[in-house]
Amino acid sequence: MTSLPTHITTDQRRAALRALGLPPALVQKVTLHQHDGMHAALYVLDREGRRIQHGDQALTATVRIPAEGVITA
């Protein structure tokens, strides 16, 4: 097994999100599942492009992108 990195840089996070087709500035959380695919919580914006607040938290929408197949190697 190869060694795991001790951290991930901001540039690496942005590049990973872009590779997944997600706009980095709108992503709150991403979860990847080997069999289920990806779930992403994205910030919801108003017409002026500002994050919509619900109480003291930003409103998010969750999207699911299913996995095409199982990774075996």
3D architecture notes:
By secondary structure, this protein is α+β, with helices and mostly antiparallel strands. The protein has one helix and five strands; from the N terminus they run H-E-E-E-E-E. A three-stranded antiparallel sheet has the order 1-2-5, with no helix packed on it. Strands 3-4 form a two-stranded antiparallel ribbon. The longest helix has 10 residues. The model has no long low-confidence stretch (mean pLDDT 92).
- Rough outline: globular
Q: The biggest beta sheet, please?
A: 3 strands, antiparallel
How many E-type strands?
5
Number of helices: 1
Helix content: 10-25%
Structural class: alpha+beta
* Fraction of residues in β-strands: 25-35%
How far apart, in Å, are the first and last alpha carbons?
A: 13 Å
Elements, N to C (H/E) = HEEEEE
Q: Indicate the radius of gyration in whole angstroms.
A: 15 Å
